[in-house]
Specification:
This protein is an alpha+beta fold. It has 5 helices and 6 strands; from the N terminus they run αααββαβαβββ. It has a 6-stranded antiparallel β-sheet with strand order 1-2-6-5-4-3, covered by helices on one side. The longest helix has 32 residues.
Length: 181
């Protein structure tokens, strides 16, 4: 059975992050239409709707820049210039209530791979034997056999963890971040 508090939390989140902004946009448009001419009011409405839709879209589907920034924040290393995203998945919407998850599979040059492996070994990351898989990440992890994983490094705090998983082909990495509340 679904927890009634979870349903209430979803209703409150939708109200705060979707209904209230739409109501504000509507009344701003009505006010602008009364005080200004129609073209300016329509321009204001269009601008506000574009911003609202962009923020809503980016909440559910983060741009590659957010994955890159997450890597740099958690590893304190520069993102490899040769990186190409093969797959990426996230769970980062208002319905996750503060929780966050980014998982990406990237391909980099062999030089960048070896350099990054060396930098990770010298950093605060700890070599571990396994990673924490989530339901949302099975898209990426289901295609990988355990024998393809070369090394797994993890950095963990009390509320989040970041994995850098090196695959044995010496060019592919899986970067996995999750935060819980």
């Amino acid at each position: 059975m679904i927890d009634p508090f979870y349903i209430l939390a979803i209703i409150v989140a939708v109200g705060i992050f979707y209904v209230i902004p739409i109501v504000i946009i509507y009344f701003t448009y009505k006010f602008a239409k009364r005080k200004l001419n129609g073209k300016i009011a329509n321009s204001i409405l269009t601008f506000m709707l574009i911003i609202f839709l962009y923020i809503s879209y980016a909440d559910f589907y983060p741009l590659e820049n957010r994955y890159k920034r997450n890597f740099e924040e958690k590893t304190e290393l520069n993102f490899p210039k040769s990186a190409k995203y093969l797959e990426k998945v996230s769970a980062n919407s208002i319905f996750d209530f503060g929780g966050r998850m980014y998982c990406s599979k990237i391909e980099i040059s062999e030089n960048d791979y070896l350099k990054l492996e060396n930098e990770i070994e010298k950093s605060n990351f700890i070599k571990v034997e396994s990673y924490t898989e989530e339901m949302d990440t099975d898209v990426i992890f289901s295609k990988i056999k355990d024998s393809e994983i070369d090394k797994i490094y993890r950095s963990r705090t009390s509320f989040d963890e970041y994995f850098v998983i090196f695959l044995s082909d010496k060019k592919t990495l899986i970067l996995f971040y999750r935060k819980w509340t």
